[in-house]
From TrEMBL:
Keyword tags: Membrane, Transmembrane, Transmembrane helix, Transport
Family: Belongs to the PRA1 family.
PANTHER family with a match to the protein in the record: PRA1 FAMILY PROTEIN (PTHR19317:SF96), PRENYLATED RAB ACCEPTOR 1-RELATED (PTHR19317)
GO CC terms in record: endoplasmic reticulum; Golgi apparatus; membrane
Full protein name: PRA1 family protein
Role summary: May be involved in both secretory and endocytic intracellular trafficking in the endosomal/prevacuolar compartments.
Gene Ontology BP annotations: vesicle-mediated transport
Amino acid sequence: MAAASPPILPTSVPAASPAPAPTAVSSNDAAASTPAAAFAFVGRLIESAKRSLSGARPWPELVDRSALSRPESLSEATSRLRKNLAYFRVNYAAVVALSLAAALLAHPFSLAALLALLAAWCLLYLLRPADAPPLAACGRTFSDKEVLGGLIASSAFVVFLTSVGSLIFSALALGAVVVFAHGAFRVPDDLFLDEPDQAAGAGNPLLSFIAGATAGRV
């Protein structure tokens, strides 16, 4: 008698689990990333300022009255200015920045206009997440290029067509006059450069941060 064949077990193919749907970045996440980017921007700015000021020369050397004398010729004044600019470059930049800060603090309206312009640049372009939805206002959607064009036009209007521009240029001119006068009258015989000059902006973390923030938007 033939042996009975083993029973056939039922086979079933498990149903394939559905692929997880791609997670979309919510508006809350995009909004939450803006303060984080702002804090990162401020941190980079403070770090860059500290690094720049660390290269300043001792201020008593800058204000040493015994080292001041009238140059005998224009060529001597030019030579002094060139050497002093190379030696006191960080101090001179701080002097110009203080002149600009004092002028803005003395004119609160101009300071408020510049702060509002800076806030618009940060919120609408520099610190805006790359995956953020397009800006919509007055029932219309604006692309990144249109937002950038509007910011540039607003900046040109504030700087060149209001009193803010003349205030900035006057403060910078005053600071430059102070720097040039000091550089021409300061005798640089006791000054020695102990570090090589570097290209302006090389390795500046602030410039790198701004370049990374604006990459891919234009």
